[in-house]
Queue: 2 jobs
Job 1
Amino acid sequence: MSERWLGALARLALPALLAACLTLAAPASARSLAEVKSAGTLTWGGDLQGGEPYVFENPKNHAELIGFEVEIADALAKRLGVVAKFSQHDWSTLVPSLERGDFDVILSGLEDTPDRRARIAVSSPYFVYGLTITIRNNSGYRSIEALKGQKVGTLNQTVAHSLLKKMPLEVALYEGQQEPYADLVAGRTEAVLLDHIIAQRYGCNVKGLTCLPDDVMRGTYVMGLRKSDETLLVALNDALTDMQGDGTLRSILERWKLWDSRQAAPALAPALALAEDRQFDLGQLTMFLKGAGITLALSVLAFTLASPLGMALALMRLYSGKIGKFLAGAYIELFRGTPVLLQLYVLYYGLAPLVKLDAFVAAVLGLGLNYAAYEAEVHRGALLSISRGQSEAAAALGLSRSQTIRFVLFPQALRTALPAVTNDFVALLKDSSLVSVITVVELTKRMTIAAVEVRSWLVPGLACAALYFSMSYPLAAFARRLERRLHHDPAQAGR
Amino acid sequence: MIQLRQVVKAFDGANVLAGVSATLDRGKIACLIGPSGCGKTTLLRCINGLEQIDSGAIHVAGCDISAKEDRPTLRRVRQEVGFVFQEFHLFPHLTVLENITLAPVRVRLLPQAAADKRGRELLDLVGLGGREGARPAQLSGGQKQRVAIARALAIDVKVLLLDEPTSALDPEMREEVREVLRDVARQGLTMLCVTHDMPLVTSLADEIWVFDAGNIVERRLAKAVP
């Protein structure tokens, strides 16, 4: 289970920690245009997860990267007399990685925003995007204002998210590009607001969905550079102007079916900020406590499901007939052998056409069903650890098998299992952060949102860690006391 | 009270009981002695159904145990026949009194209060009056075995089977258990006791069954010491 938590940690907290360190570290030394030229390569950072049409692996040849940003990078490098080289990074860590000196330029659908301009240097724009509303065919919403009070989906850390936050409506946050539209089809949300590139590929052509023709807002994609790399910035801007002048940019965009009337528009002012310049204040703290409340409620409910189900499975696996043993074994291996993340996806998105589970209910079910498999093995181990003499003594006294299990074996197994069960509950408390993929905003998700808002991972990260600890530690202490009280051998109780 | 006819029991193809026949009358006490591993304990376990016999028949306290698996009969047998283990096997999560009353309440369906009352009487009998609230872990080996004896008696059995009741005990604790068993013997129970403990044999047995290589090789009457 620690592996699963490590996975989640790597996914969520590691970039946070990394970024926290980076804000304290001195910026990397500048790489001038001359250095790029002498090295012969222009290294650009992006994220393959962004997928088609930005940058992705050629389905016919997985070693080759294609996409409109690949072609733009190649064209720019050619004009500098060098070769373009791609560097893979998680999208959310692109800016800190740039500052660290991992590559020369970010070219990855980076929106031009005031707060980004404050931190890094940005090039002239190479693409104009429009925020597009997608609705179900039969719904009557025709503008963003009409969606007042409704639930609207978008991706975290996008301009669309900043825009929606300012509106009097409920926001559902997703991690992947397909999920917001899947939930819209399922009726869990009333609209999705995202860049038109994403909308056209994942939303507008989905059966039952329609995109509204007017953009809610327009913005631009720009390249990001270190502020100190002035000569490189000038050279890239010149190259880009050149590509606009001779039609290279237009032909690239046309090849990817991205050229439209938006691209003819003059350069735009930076879009609204992703982050308002907020401090970590009382309001934030209240939201954190709310997130912690959701984490706790979720974990307690999931474990309330997992614990008895796990016991039942353990008893079935040990004492039932052939079919029962097989079924319990199959359940345990299936739920233990596949990632809980996948199970959450299947419950929430996969089953949506059949049962439209509420996100919180799906989260409780997903975590509960998964942990039941682990609890089953804990209880099975505890039952097996009881000496045969106990069941023989019970049998000799005339107790039936079910009475033996109920009055003799099970109470003893519970005591043996208690430390492992406590351990699993603490693990569940932290694993519950995984449910952010199905739009539940719990403590860890709240931290990532706050980190964007206050432009630092440090304080939100520490607050998040403190809250997790303040929930898990008392629980562990309580379990230790319970163990001492329940333990039948006073000589061992102190251990 | 106990009748054995040609009882055969094999483990992994080797006969541990090679056609044992014997009779023990009501109220009599037999001690089963012989070298280790000769099948004494197996015989005891077969009489109470902890092991299933391969062939032959056992008639005990009015019930017939045969080679066929027969759960209802087995449950009846176990309500008539008590078993005391070498290693006590008390239930560690229950108090001394709860250990004794579990079967009367759950199997005999006695009301808890009546079971408690009887339990206390039995604790007095085994010399542990006042210790009903203790946990098994707080008792010495001899005390544990005395509780185990009280527990076996609590369902008012007609036959008591004892598997080396004193051999897991330190020598100084053996006497207290022997004493309790002598008190129990005076109640008129039929008892079959596997043991190496010669003082116990001489003070308890009406009959001595000498066991070797899976069968009774000698039966002799012993003069019980009052």
Job 2
Amino acid sequence: MAEQFRPDPTFYPSPRLAMEAPAERFAFTALLCPDGTKPDALAVVDVDPNSSSYGRVVHQVDMPYRGDEFHHFGWNACSSMLCPIGGHPFTERRYLIIPGIRSSRIYIVDTKPSPKDAKLVKVIEPEELMRRTGYSRPHTTHCGPEGIYISTLGGAGKDGTQGPPGIFLMDCESFEILGRWEIDRGPQRMSYDFWWNLPQDYMVSSEWGLPPQFENGLVPEDLLGNKYGHQLHFWDLRGRRHLQTIDLGANHQMALEVRPAHDPTREYGFLGVVVDTTNLEASIWTWWREGGKFHAKKTAIIPPEPADASLLPDLLKPFGAVPPLVTDIDLSMDDRYLYVSCWGTGELRQYDVRDPMKPELAGSVHIGGIARRTRHPNGQEFAGGPQMVEISRDGKRVYFTNSLYSTWDVQFYGRHLPGAQVKANVGENGGITLDPNYFVTFGDGLSAHQVRLEGGDCSTDSFCFPSV
Amino acid sequence: MLDRFFLLPIGLSAAPLAWLAVVALGCYHGLNPGMGWLLAVSNGLQARRGQAVFAAFLPIGAGHFLAMAVALLPFAVLSAYFSRLHDVSIAAGLVLVAFGLLKLIRRRHPRFLARIRPHHIALWSALMATAHGAGLMLLPAFLALCSGSSAVHGSMLALLEQSAGAAFAVALVHTAAMLAVGSLIAWLVYRFWGLRVLHRSWFNLDLIWAAALLLSGSIALAS
């Protein structure tokens, strides 16, 4: 890969400079074919309001295999490349790393010279990943000081339970898998999401469940037996060692997305917990570092909504209620608003988190939902509920899609969810409204998962310089 | 102590051109964001104190000085033991050319640098300078200064003391120039220019850096 003479203009030294940079013109959306009849794909959506193809898919990269199950993905390089230590400012934010969470295959897509010409340039086979790391089911991708970090949900063996899952490293230019990241994993045995504070030198990781607990659908006995993940792990980032575990309590099942404050001087972040098995609530937790130790506290709860059993899937009929199911959260670049997807109840919430210990509900939109089934303002049906959220760097637009995971979609919504991507506009002083003119649909039989934005977004970039 | 190192063995006027090169290379290293000023700006912004910008230069300077001394000392020893300085020059030239070629061919950055903790600044500064051959770059100037003083004959110990003193003096003067330029830029970025300047003024110097190593090597070989 050719080195650039100047730093990539989409590497921003601080969160504020990221917000002030030109707005995104393209969104990249991971598409999965839940029944495996066609390959998964990467869709390129035109999000430039001045373009004649605004709000439409302008390009699609179809993969050569089937059954990968696209989920999360990320950039090969981002703003962390400007860090004084471990930085590498002359690489390019250019390649998307797209793991298949079911196949453990990893695709590298080149987005230059234009996202409209994006093309597949490399495929890393699951055997290669296994040989180099002993891990399977790759998930979250982050660009950091040692290259690309990718978390996994499974270990070795057919069902991924031989050995713990963890994080591995990939070279950000050659895409060679370098090996396991952890030197000492301590008591960590489950994995899901992770992120970090680069100058403060720590990492945070969370837990979903092991492959047998999600691949063929949610296992109700495991959920009611509190056997899904419910811990946060804190790590020494450069030392690659486990430092501390915080157990949220076994009833807090599925600790998913970890969102640290973007400003590196702020030593706190948030976590979304899918469901409390004692009362079906979802919760938001704030974690922080104080006195050299990490702490976590439940700072917001979202109650379940009672519903007629006839509207509910078998799984929920005995409860007569819809759990909110917080499946994704995302923090705006200025660390002001936390967006929370309630995939079950069909709501996207906006919390004002300027005081991170006291999130205040600032806005909300309803769309989809197991029982509510709210239509989009344009009159169209929105299958599923708000799920993967991505916020524009300037904080004015919030894009989201509707699918959680192929087998879980069927369990909760009774069918595979036709992919949709919609957008909420953010008010000057908070509040969100759905944009009636933005409703992107994808090809037949394709569901939609994570969204990434051209030039970076609020769940990609991490910084070594504060906003001042 | 200092004047013993500075003045007695060499004499500042002995080779003004060589000293100029030592200072110029210090300025060049100081200008380079990767040699320290960027880290100092980050430290200042994180602490929200201008003082923290300058405080960072203590470990940066210590690390840089150490890297220079470590690169020069083996040649100081060689030049003391081999009366024919020409041989040492050739050895230095070959090392430099080899390192420059390596930098040209293997353009990847050493990944172990990313493992250094953000608060181990002196270690980072020393390894960063070493990995980029910053100390080797000083060799031609250093050897020129040694040859200027080789007329002074004496015991082996005296010769060694003399060349080691010269190595320390060169490392010290060079580091002082690097710190002066680096801290000036760090302060300007921190206080006036802001982080935006990174995109406008940070150039990829890898090629120029490799060229500088090759040029230094050629000078050493030719001398």
